[in-house]
Amino acid sequence: MATMKDVARLAGVSTSTVSHVINNNRYVSEGIRAKVNHAIATLNYAPSALARSLKMNCTRTIGMLVTASNNPFYAEVVRGVERSCYEQGYSLILCNTEGDYERMDTSLETLLQKRVDGLLLMCTEARAPSSEVLNRYPRLPMVMMDWSPFEYSSDIIQDNSLLGGELATNYLIEKGFTDIACIAGPQDKLPAKHRLQGYYNAMQQAGLPIRKELVLTSDFEFAGGFSAMQTLLSLPIQPQAVFTCNDAMAVGAYQAIYQKGLRVPDDISIVGYDDIDLASYMIPPLTTIHQPKDELGKLAVSQLLRRMEDIEAQANLLVLTPKLIERGSVIAHRK
């Protein structure tokens, strides 16, 4: 493989001149530039990104640790992150945790050894990454996305899940429903806990009783929503409407309702959460709480770049505001 020295030797110039031509950061006469470019083409020389990063102490690479999941929400956020990285001239290295603590720590170590310039964390594990790993890189710029804070100086970007839970439940209440079920996410996760609390708040403020059997905890996955909805449909008195605390579980709930020979929204109304791309293509289209996923990805990258410029700046908590998207999965309750 040709080196910069080989190019310089063939062009009859110094290695610094070759560097100036490649990086276009100093004036080089057109004649010399032509010789260098001819030598590069002849030798099929490719500049070493590793060598450049070691010299500049900058890899132009961002690492992201994300939970592997069937939930399309994560893929849509990653898509926004990758697009924003590309627009800013950075590459993205993505590692999945597979919901495993050991793999989370191993993946984190891998990203840090690759000398990423900054790190985005979007994991659903209840435990933070190994402090032993993090302490070896004390000045690493980091942004956590929709994840419970822990003792590490980093910026945090979260959805206002409490407000989102209230919006979803209040919408069903305004439609005349009183027996409203909630299929919540795992309660060791802060967003899931807040969405469920939003449901409780709205029901209590409306003076509506909350039947214990109508509040189920699931896993934010398709199968979890299917299983939870089957449980609700087996009750002697079925709920009139259901708030599923994410859209993936709403998809599973649709399937359980269909298999029972019932229809959404004629027999039961549903509100989801996240507004994944699939939501508008469901039959009927899903009424849901919109999370600005592209904005979340773009904001996370922008905040990380700011943190990379000033590692000593005070950590920030940035909160995104959810909004209700009305579609066809809810109708007014017929008394």
TrEMBL record:
<keyword id="KW-0805">Transcription regulation</keyword>
<dbReference type="Pfam" id="PF13377">
    <property type="entry name" value="Peripla_BP_3"/>
</dbReference>
<dbReference type="InterPro" id="IPR000843">
    <property type="entry name" value="HTH_LacI"/>
</dbReference>
<dbReference type="InterPro" id="IPR028082">
    <property type="entry name" value="Peripla_BP_I"/>
</dbReference>
<keyword id="KW-0804">Transcription</keyword>
<dbReference type="InterPro" id="IPR057343">
    <property type="entry name" value="PurR_sensor_dom"/>
</dbReference>
<dbReference type="InterPro" id="IPR010982">
    <property type="entry name" value="Lambda_DNA-bd_dom_sf"/>
</dbReference>
<dbReference type="GO" id="GO:0003700">
    <property type="term" value="F:DNA-binding transcription factor activity"/>
</dbReference>
<dbReference type="Pfam" id="PF00356">
    <property type="entry name" value="LacI"/>
</dbReference>
<protein>
    <recommendedName>
        <fullName>Ribose operon repressor</fullName>
    </recommendedName>
</protein>
<keyword id="KW-0678">Repressor</keyword>
<dbReference type="InterPro" id="IPR046335">
    <property type="entry name" value="LacI/GalR-like_sensor"/>
</dbReference>
<keyword id="KW-0238">DNA-binding</keyword>
<dbReference type="GO" id="GO:0000976">
    <property type="term" value="F:transcription cis-regulatory region binding"/>
</dbReference>
<feature type="domain" description="HTH lacI-type">
    <location>
        <begin position="2"/>
        <end position="56"/>
    </location>
</feature>
